[in-house]
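Hi R.,

Here's the chain you asked about this morning:
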Amino acid sequence: MHSIIGFGVIFLCIIIARAMFPKVNDYSILHNTFSHLGSYTKDNNPHGWIFFSFGQIISFFVQIPLVSYIRYRVEHVNKIFGRVVTGTMYFGSTCQLLVGFFPATRTIMFGKVMVGAVHQVSAMLGFLIQIIGYYMMSVLITMDRYKCRNNNKKLNYMLVVMPIFVLLATVTLGIVALVTFDFIYRAHKKRDPSIGSNWAESIDTFWSFPLWENIIIYVTYLYYVWLPFTLPFRTDGIVPKQRISQTLKCDFNKIEFKTDLSKIWFEIISHKKCSNKWKAADFLEHLADYQEVEKLMTDEFVQNVTIISSLIKSGETEQIQRIVNNSLLISDEIRPFKWFLLKYHSTK
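And here is the predicted structure, written out as tokens:
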């Protein structure tokens, strides 16, 4: 939710910066780049540039929690590539922070280095690195669908993966348009050397760089907004051992995994420091996907884990009691549930 609110603030800052752009300067995405909204020069946005810069700085702080969540999603699929993905995203977010601190102006910082040069390098490098990172993320999340057991119940993978291909298609179309015009321009330049520069000839046309830059940036922002809507509130799937230990506040390494499911459940449930029922119910959902016990679980076991943990959280005691008293709970695989529920009722 905080990501959605944060991106809402960012869009509001962009809208305010656009509204404060002087009419005499005739702003248009056909001849003004996105960065012109954040330039304090007289011929750009001398009054509203601060809102644009503030929005870019806010974007950094909004993306950090989102990237932290994605890290838990992808590192268990492939640890090395997972770290590369999150590293590229953190780098891209930092570049966006620099874009906010260094407006697109010709003000000299030191020597011959202009503020606008830092802005341009940060913008281009950050965007390219982030595109690569989000593309790799989509690949790892797709792999996660086939590596984890029941994640598809909480995450619609297509809603996460497909938008990145829409973004890549937009970027590709923009590059094709700019490269195509470059060939057209070179041919015209040979016939008529008196024509203006590539930039001047493309301005206010379908081939202009500002047009495609704005389209790609706004599509990217829409993707950033879309992503929090598609991701579940908390992480699920194969959860790192350390994260489970922190959740339950107990030493997970003391729990020995053997082929006997009853033994596994007894050691987990009887652990004194794991008496918080809500945390224990949350742990049930994670247990079914944990690598060391996944091979011992059947589909029926996983299904019962989901049902019982949800019943505990919702407090439906009557239905829980019926499960406890059910004479069918006699198989070796289901018996641990009865132990868990009896312990739950005895301390409730």
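One quick note: The CA atoms of residues 71 and 86 lie 6 Å apart.

Cheers,
M.
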